[in-house]
Amino acid sequence: MSDRPVSGGAAGPSGAAGPVLDTSAPPSQPARLVEAHRPELLLTEEHSLCPGCGEPLAVRVFLDAISELGLASQAIAVAGIGCYTMFSGTMDVDLVQALHGRAPSVATGVKRMLPDALVFTLQGDGDMVNEGLQEVLHTAARGERVTCILLNNGVFGETGGHMTATSVIGQRTKNTLDGRDAREHGYPILIGDLISRLEGAAYVARGSVHNAGGVARTKRMCRRAFETQAAGEGFSFVEVLTMCPTGWFVPTADGPDELQRTLAEVHVVGELKVDGRIRTTQELHAESLAKQREVEAQLAAGGLHE
Amino acid sequence: MTERVLMEGSEALVRASLLSGCRFFAGYPMTPFTEILEHFAELMPEHGGTCINAESELEAVGMAWGAAATGARAATGSTGQGLSLMQESLSEATLAEVPIVVFNMARSQGDYFQATRGGGHGDYRNLVLAPQDVREGIELVQLAFHLADKWRNPALVYGDYLLAHTQESVAVEPSALPELPAKDWAVDGSRTGSRRSGAVTPLGLGKLGQRDLGQEGKAQYIATKMPLLEREVRVETGFLDDAETVIVAFGSPARFVKHAIARLRAEGHRIGYVRPITLWPFPYDIVRTAAASARAVGSFEISSGQLVDDVRIGAAGLAPVTFIGGVSSDHSGFGVGRLLDVEEVSARILALHEGREQPVVPGYGEFTYQLAEHQEVAAP
Amino acid sequence: MSGDRPNAATVRSRGTVTIATDRCKGCELCIPACPPDVLTMSTEVNRLGFRYPELHPGCTGCGACLLVCPDFVFDVFRFEQPVEHAVAPRGGGR
Known about the structure:
The complex is a heterotrimer of chains A (306), B (380) and C (94).
Chain A: E1 31-35, H1 55-68, E2 75-79, E3 94-97, H2 103-113, E4 118-124, H3 125-131, H4 133-141, E5 147-152, E6 155-156, E7 162-163, H5 182-185, H6 191-196, E8 201-208, H7 212-230, E9 235-241, H8 245-248, H9 255-261, H10 263-266, E10 270-274, E11 277-278, H11 281-300
Parallel strand pairs in A: 2-3, 2-4, 4-5, 5-9, 8-9
Antiparallel strand pairs in A: 6-7, 8-10, 10-11
Chain B: E1 5-8, H1 9-19, E2 22-27, H2 34-43, E3 50-53, H3 57-69, E4 73-78, H4 80-85, H5 87-96, E5 101-106, H6 112-118, E6 127-129, H7 134-151, E7 155-160, H8 161-165, E8 167-170, E9 199-200, H9 214-225, E10 235-238, E11 245-248, H10 251-266, E12 271-276, E13 278-280, H11 284-292, E14 296-299, H12 307-315, E15 321-323, H13 342-353
Parallel strand pairs in B: 2-3, 2-4, 4-5, 5-7, 6-7, 11-12, 11-14, 14-15
Antiparallel strand pairs in B: 1-8, 6-13, 10-12
Chain C: E1 10-19, H1 30-33, E2 39-41, E3 53-55, H2 64-68, E4 74-86
Antiparallel strand pairs in C: 1-4, 2-3
């Protein structure tokens, strides 16, 4: 997919044919708007994040989830420090800015004073799994009725692309230029697995925004997490794998494939804890391999059924 | 509660906090602060508030920050070591204008620099109040909550082991304090989606469509705010009119100093005292006035000499300043040691007043650091 | 795959998009994301210096491009009645 030729004009690659249509204004033919470009709770589309960054996609899904659930008038964000911090100024959400790693405890203080508010944190992997590991674990253990959202791109993006606790083995970063080596740099932490084991954690999920299906699925996870909080069931957690082509040293258009090839192989997408049932990342991995083989077998046998 | 009862300092400070409307506390056990946490844990639920036994001091200050951001009166605390862990947050809470009250039930007076200079980064000040006894503690705790909200700045209560564990006959009564405006800066979710949502943030990053200071503007804003807090200085003085020697001291040790000076006065010695009640802002002007007509100024403190720096600044060279305190603790490292004794204190004050060498504490000599050969520095 | 083709000379679009080309940062994530494959990157650049997506007939209004665009460039519409576009016959264009 990443090496497809691109061209404008009358006939595009592999399927696109016909003239370039005017897309500068809404259609003159009768049509309904299926979806507007900007979430209701985002004040502007402008941001200074890199081309191909996955974080804005994650921001859209949780903001849309809040609007769809009708929880906007009681939502409070607690933001950590990372590239995504610039959204602190552009999310139309009452917000408390926390220091690096501290968001879960700040969120705890907010929620204890305002039990009816929808309180969520927005943190990167460097913020949550490096600096703030004990905070998120204790907040989950205590069953604080807040939702922690982790934007996981396996690097410290804002400082230039350094290794974090979630970087995968073999991943090249500014301080592991030959690739993360287990003997020297240890192993990545699968934070979802640590959290799901804690009794106070009611919903734990891991999504990804590398394709449209992943984005849609991640939004469902965010909705589920917020519903868990609103129902008072306990701590909820959504990890979202995002692309960072800059931090990964890959061309922008290759971000999604790189994510699938590296981060998503280790931090496997799926629901780790729901309705009291815990699945480990290993189990999710085995399930996804089994599903893949099933589809391949069906195709080999002559096509997908149903 | 207007009845006078025998009450331990820790409990009194907690009751005063609750009287101030404090509805959130988070802390981590550490001697001699632990009882503060215990009393909050016991009494907070009766007042409809929350007390969390935080899993670390870092989390405790974070929780208090979050609670305060919603407009509630919130507090945290520890002893000096725990406050060291909180320093990043205490620095940035000033930038975020988050009004938390912080208790330091200190093991010595060697946290003076941490409290007044701030052990954190950047240009910031925390208001610091140092009660001398339980009765004053009840007033100063209420004042701390008031000043924190008035200025939207952290306020520290500098207590100590003696204050925490002494029982005094006190009445926990509300102080008369002026009304403050409503906290319209606080966030509670109600403005989400209104296009005028709020933010409590240490960063200069403002919400789109609202005032955006930028990082430099924010620093300038806070830099011009801090000097305004200096008008909150509070101090107690005694016998200064004709004092030849002036002693400066704060907190529980100041009571020993005052008692010693009262006795020495009765014997005819012209000695006075300055007791800073706010450690920051420090009463430099009062110290200057006292030094102008004195022959000697001394600082008595349980430390190796931190308060003495501010006394020197205040004295502005008008009289020589001498450190007459010292390190002193029991064998657990807590602040009730040899120097906290009226006879010891009296001897030190008199020695200064009579121009003699400071008495040596028996036995301390063996602990004196011995210079090694490689550490010798030749005179220039 | 590329929209209904009742005959070789027209392609049916069930939907369409508006594209804020000035905001596009040329990441190209929308191109492979489009199920009917009706987006291609332009040859010109916008004022930020990036190439941007252009729409061809056959859009279904599914919204996949909107979901994967980090710069919120797309609004997605569905026509009340599908629109037929005339296209050059296949095989002659490339």
